[in-house]
Amino acid sequence: MDEVRNERGTRGSGNVTDQVIEQPTEQADESIDELGPVDWLVLEFPGSKFRGEIAPILDELVEKGTIRVLDLVLVRKEADGSLDFFELSDLEESEIGGLRAYETEVALLLSEEDLASIAEAIEPGSTAAVLVWENRWAAPFGSAVRRAGGQLVATGRIPVQALLAAIEADDEDEDAIEGDGEGEG
Fold it and tell me: 103 vs 78, 100, 107, 164, CA distance in Å?
């Protein structure tokens, strides 16, 4: 198993999908009924190269009230498989751009088990950003559903790559059909 050097300290237990906000921030101190759905993702950067293009977009989403950042961690996997986990406070401003502004909003949702599972998916020589956010835009809808006695029974996400592949396959099918009809009539 890969060596894990955790600079985050002790985290929650269990999977991120089973977590409750254990150390709410001022902003997270609102009624559970008013929370939007919470999502997470892992973005891998081969060669640990960042270009600073993500922070401004994330800033915009937060400023518009579309999302609220709940947790943000960087995981660096060295070529030998050893791991380093970093909170934003552990990094230089030049490494993270404007992301340090979210440091006060971190709710510590990811457990050590979560991070170990995530680290297994990261290629050696890469760095990954692990982002957990609340979809604030959906909070009023979710609250209305709960007040009406409804409950979420299924959810899913279709990756953009899958949508693009489906569109490409449809285009190829249409081209093949049009090609078969040429020369007739």
Answer: 25, 5, 9, 35
Distance separating alpha carbons of residues 27 and 113, to the nearest angstrom: 26
Mean confidence (pLDDT) of the chain: 75
3-state secondary structure 109-127: CCCHHHHHHHHHHCCCCEE
Q: Going by C-beta distance under 8 Å and a sequence separation of 6 or more, which residues neighbour residue 153?
A: none
Closest CA to 118 of 72, 155, 164: 72
Rounded Cα–Cα distance for residues 86 and 84 (Å): 6
Residue with token string 């906000």: 21
Nearest residue to 110 via CA among 136, 69, 73 = 73
How many residues does this entry show for the chain? 185
Amino acid residing at 158? I
pTM for the structure as a whole? 0.65
Neighbour count for residue 69 (Cβ, 10 Å): 22
Name residue 107's amino acid.
Answer: A
Examine the pLDDT at 96 and tell me if it is beyond 80: no
**What is the pLDDT, as a whole number, of residue 108?**
62
The values of phi and psi at residue 45, to 5°, are -120, 95
| 71-81 pLDDT per residue, tens | 888 888 999 99
Tokens for 148, please give them.
């009406």
44, 136 contact by CB (below 8 A): no
